[in-house]
Amino acid sequence: MTVRFAVRALAAATTALLTLAGAAACATDDGSGSNPDRVEVVAAFYPLQFLAERVGGDAVTVTNLVKPGAEPHDLELHPRQVGQVSDAELIVYLAGFQPAVDEAVAQNGGDRAFDVAGVQPLRDAAEGGHQHEGESDHAESGGKDPHVWLDPTRLATIGDRLAERLGRADPNRAADFTARAQALRADLDRLDADYTQGLATCQRREIVTSHTAFGYLAARYRLEQVGVTGLSPEGEPSPQRLAEVTEEAREHGATTIFFETLVSPKVAETVAREVGARTAVLDPIEGPPADGDYLSAMRTNLQTLRTALDCS
């Protein structure tokens, strides 16, 4: 009986140790600093995730703070996400775009934070289109337009600077980061050339959008943005603003009123009914595309613009 009891006790203890080991392995296999061979990167929203993954390659693990399908402007961080920011080796964010991320970075980021808004001066919110009475929501980004990723040439420069920051985090792979950034720049240069050529000859150059997210794109390719609301996609336009946009759309002969993927199309549909125009999606690419990546989403936008503006 004594021997049999001892054998059973030893078996039970072994099982318990194996269970604890398995639980510990699961606890460390959650992407929170568990892989010493990769740089742990936190990206504040999708375009920065795309950038970090392209430049970092298999040398990084990237966590996006915004869930697919969620609107990134109004992100609220849960304690686990704050912990991810605290534990990351590099935090890639855009100051002024997501207040909750700004706060977490201020408290926990230190010298591990890379603010892409500091790579090149941001455009004033009122540039690249019309500013009207009632468009007063620009204070959310300090009067600056944060949608810098919609200019491929600017995104390429941010990629170059990100490669430098990753190289500081992992000096042994600095050359790899630089090479990947150069490959990404080549892809973005081709995209820029396609936009330049594709939008060179169009019957119209005004784009009527539900949300003024396209100032960088409009400036780069000589378009004029007419926004129903300002920088906040959740903004509600006044009846006066709706009337103004409707009149401008008629004046410019707009055949398409654009709305975006993560926001209700009701405002765009209201203007389109008044003008006798159709609606179409123009993706600001603030969240991950349903299919493909940033590059494919931008090419889809190009085709949408060419159709809407009657480009030859």
Task: Describe the protein's architecture and organization.
With 312 residues, the chain is an alpha/beta fold. It has a domain at 119-312: Nitrogenase molybdenum iron protein domain (Rossmann fold). It contains ten helices and eight strands. The strands form two sheets. The protein has a four-stranded parallel sheet, with helices on both faces. A four-stranded parallel sheet has the order 6-5-7-8, with helices on both faces. Residues 1-33 and 130-142 have low confidence and may be disordered.
Quick summary:
This protein has 312 residues and is of the alpha/beta class. It has ten helices and eight strands. The longest helix has 27 residues, at 2-28.
